[in-house]
Amino acid sequence: MILDNPKIIQPTLDSLKNSFRTGKTLSLSYRKQQLKNLLTGLKEMEDEIINANIKDMGYKNKDTSKLFNLTPTIMEIQFILKNFEKWSQKQKVDTSLLVGPGQSYIIPEPFGVSLVIGAWNYPLSTCVGPAANSIASGNCVVLKPSEMAPYSSNVIKKLIEKYLGKKYKKVKKNQKIIDNDCYRVIEGQIEVSKEICSYPWDHIIFTGSPQKGRLIAKAAAENLIPVILELGGKSPTIVDKSANLETAAYRIISGKIQNSGQTCIAPDYLYVESSIFDKFLEMLKKVLLEMTQNDPKTSPDYCRMINEFHTKRMQNMIKNHGGKLFYGGEVDVNQKYVQPTIIINPQLDSDCMKDEIFGPILPIFSYKNFDEVINFINSKDKPLALYYYGENKIHKQRLIEQTSSGALSFNESVMHYINHTLPFGGVGNSGYGKIHGQFGFQSCSHMKPVLDKSGFIGTLNAYPLYCRFPPYTESRIKTMNFLSQVFDIYPSEITTSVYFKIFIVLILAILLSLFSKLW
């Protein structure tokens, strides 16, 4: 049972702000140790984590639960560990000749205390994964797991309290002091969830629905807090006649029934070219039966809906779609079971086409003209993902140029999530900001620009450099206008001919300076 206690929020925030001010999280070795500790904890607590996920999500197969929730989290932290020290180094950039001589570079700087609010569908990876990005960036972190996955929330709290923040100091033989004041977990029900974003955190990462994302953004705006919103949306999938239909069916169905469709980047609806429509429908059914061993209800790999409310939501979508039921439709509210369901041509104003489904229902439409697909996608909110199956280069290019989505995958579904060299995030209604890999590191950092003009040359104020200062006489203004036209270039842009022109200008400037002194 998770209790509500909003009173713990302010003391927790104050404590971590004090910890951040000590500067201990600025140390790369300290951050590295925390990430290693986190990996150790995930591996040592594997059984507890999996069992909690089974209780929350209704998995029957421990390996399936591990594959979808624990393994991606471990993969992400391992990738961060291999690379974050490189990402933490200052990044040299060009200095305009107009601004120079000097050096310009960017330094990743932690925000301070970061709040990470996880989702219930993948309670570990949506909470601990973003937290790892924030830890690598040098922030203190408070994690708020979803109260809708209470068993996982409890395990995450235990994980952080037991393994994070450990800094061992030998006092006596075999005696250790554990310092655990940079990372905390706040559990709570609706009152904590409603109130927690009203506090002055330095950064917030939220995974959830667009509706709640708007509330998070509004609350954060009161304190001008930078926010990453990982939201959802209706991710379209297109299959044309040039596609490998069997491959498309396997990857679409796999992405759809994973976690019973409770995945923010699951294929939400399909557009299939009319010439292959009937054939592909049968292929989808064949693959679906194969993957669920002819009975999804007893399949060890097929989980349940998170709660009764969402089960009934699926039930209402199935009852009121207004199209043709091709496969599935069975719902058992008591068991939170929804059979994978394929619906042909549901009404566009039905719930399954107005809202993100977030369940194992797959609407499917046929099309003859690719324009109608593009137009339909663009008439809706920008999705978190868009999938295309086929080899038509023109179609691919049109999707790249004429649509907007958080991610675009060709001949694949969902798998871009575990490619950590790609940013993960939405656009428009599906969110903003990025996590994963270097993009997540940068999103959890203030990328501070630095201009360094040191030394004799850097501090020189001789002609024509002093023309930038008042009083702005006519000659000074003319000089500055001339310099801004000639010297507003960067070393990486300079060719041999440009170097020669600059050399001539400098010689003339020196001669003019000497001439002015003689007079």
From TrEMBL:
Which residues catalyse the reaction? E230, C264
Q: Name one GO cellular component term.
A: cytoplasm
Q: What are the transmembrane regions?
A: 498-515
Tell me the keywords, alphabetical order: Membrane, NAD, Oxidoreductase, Transmembrane, Transmembrane helix
Q: Which BP terms in the Gene Ontology apply to this protein?
A: aldehyde metabolic process
The Aldehyde dehydrogenase domain covers 17-449
Task: Extract the GO molecular function terms from the UniProt entry.
Answer: aldehyde dehydrogenase (NAD+) activity
* InterPro entries hit by this protein: Ald_DH/histidinol_DH, Ald_DH_C, Ald_DH_CS_GLU, Ald_DH_N, Aldehyde_DH_dom, Aldehyde_DH_NAD(P)
Family named by the database record: Belongs to the aldehyde dehydrogenase family.
This chain's protein is named Aldehyde dehydrogenase
